């Protein structure tokens, strides 16, 4: 979404071509390289179960845009992504997916809102089969420019992951608000708040490396809607780990800066904090720092 906000939003609605023939000017190739630090990759409540990790990912997407009217267009895209982890390499992921979007403006005035509905479907192939999933996601959001420096968006998202195992078969709904501030002519600072309702999953030790049982995880077991051995963590660490799914309320706070590098690249750095509250007093926090280099061809 960062790439769309800073590079695609200003000019997409007013392309010149009016016919349905394929034109190279209607096709866009984007790529990004991202490094992400996560202080609680296991999404665990207890500090003893929290696993820090660093991952690197590469994503490429090919998009085709077609104007339907002076103020509306559709966009079709295909994308591929690979992610590799330093600590828990059984979480390594390969993704293939496709998406479609419809964008419309009521009029061509400066402050007229841009309305977008999009849907995507992707296949996630992960190092352990139980986490493999087919993910359906759809969003509806409205973006409006208030000044030449301030842009805001509000929207909603539905996401369903149909996984190989029940714990990672999750469904949730997200509501979000985004604020962009452009400064020094070409830089953009942004902040996004999201509230999510629905399933989350976590990992925890059931048996420690010395063979002792964890006697304090009964609240997790009682609150979980599904539970099973965690193949990724059991294949990486000693002891015995379980994965469990919870019905939760999640608040996330994301802040970042996007900085152009030349005419077709940008560097983006962001920090995110997630605060998760589930039934029977179960909760956890998660902090991530991400740096990305984005390229448009």
Word description of this protein:
There is one protein chain. With 297 residues, the chain is mostly beta strands. It has three helices and 13 strands; from the N terminus they run αβββββββββαβαβββ. The chain has helices at 2-8, 218-223, 231-234; strands at 27-38, 53-69, 72-85, 93-104, 114-126, 133-145, 150-163, 170-183, 187-207, 226-229, 240-261, 265-278, 283-296. Strands 1-2-3-4-5-6-7-8-9-11-12-13 form a twelve-stranded antiparallel β-barrel. β7 and β8 (170-183) form a beta hairpin. The radius of gyration is 21 Å and the shape is elongated. Mean pLDDT is 90; it is low at 1-22.
Percent of residues in helices: under 10%
Strand content: over 45%
* C-alpha Rg (nearest Å): 21 Å
Q: What strand line-up does the widest sheet have?
A: 1-2-3-4-5-6-7-8-9-11-12-13
The run of helices and strands is HEEEEEEEEEHEHEEE
Shape: elongated
H/I helix tally:
3
Biggest beta sheet attributes: 12 strands, antiparallel, barrel
Give the low-pLDDT segments.
1-22
Helix/sheet category? mainly beta
Topology, number of strands: 13
From the structure above, extract its key features:
single chain; 297 residues; 12-stranded antiparallel β-barrel; 3 helices
Produce the secondary structure layout:
Elements: H1 2-8, E1 27-38, E2 53-69, E3 72-85, E4 93-104, E5 114-126, E6 133-145, E7 150-163, E8 170-183, E9 187-207, H2 218-223, E10 226-229, H3 231-234, E11 240-261, E12 265-278, E13 283-296
Antiparallel strand pairs: 1-2, 1-13, 2-3, 3-4, 4-5, 5-6, 6-7, 7-8, 8-9, 9-11, 10-11, 11-12, 12-13
């Amino acid at each position: 979404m960062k790439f769309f906000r800073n590079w695609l939003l200003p000019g997409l609605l007013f392309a010149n071509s009016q016919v349905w023939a394929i034109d190279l000017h209607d096709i866009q190739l984007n790529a990004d390289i991202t490094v992400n630090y996560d202080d609680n990759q296991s999404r665990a409540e207890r500090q003893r179960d929290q696993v820090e990790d660093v991952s690197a990912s590469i994503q490429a997407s090919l998009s085709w845009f077609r104007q339907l009217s002076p103020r509306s267009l559709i966009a079709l895209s295909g994308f591929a992504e690979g992610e590799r982890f330093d600590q828990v390499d059984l979480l390594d992921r390969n993704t293939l997916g496709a998406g479609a979007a419809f964008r419309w403006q009521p009029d061509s005035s400066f402050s007229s809102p841009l309305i977008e509905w999009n849907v995507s479907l992707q296949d996630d192939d992960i190092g352990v089969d139980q986490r493999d999933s087919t993910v359906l996601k759809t969003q509806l959001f409205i973006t409006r420019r208030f000044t030449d420096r301030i842009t805001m968006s509000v929207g909603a998202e539905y996401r369903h992951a149909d996984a190989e195992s029940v714990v990672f078969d999750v469904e949730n709904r997200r509501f979000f608000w985004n604020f962009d501030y452009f400064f020094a002519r070409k830089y953009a600072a942004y902040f996004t708040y999201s509230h999510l309702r629905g399933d989350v999953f976590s990992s925890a030790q059931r048996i420690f490396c010395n063979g002792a049982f964890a006697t304090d995880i009964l609240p997790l077991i009682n609150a979980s809607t599904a539970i099973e051995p965690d193949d990724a963590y059991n294949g990486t660490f000693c002891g015995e780990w379980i994965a469990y799914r919870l019905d939760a309320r999640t608040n996330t706070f994301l802040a970042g800066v996007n900085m152009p590098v030349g005419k077709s690249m940008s560097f983006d750095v962001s920090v995110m904090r997630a605060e998760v509250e589930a039934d029977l007093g179960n909760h956890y926090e998660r902090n991530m720092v991400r740096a990305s280099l984005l390229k448009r061809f």
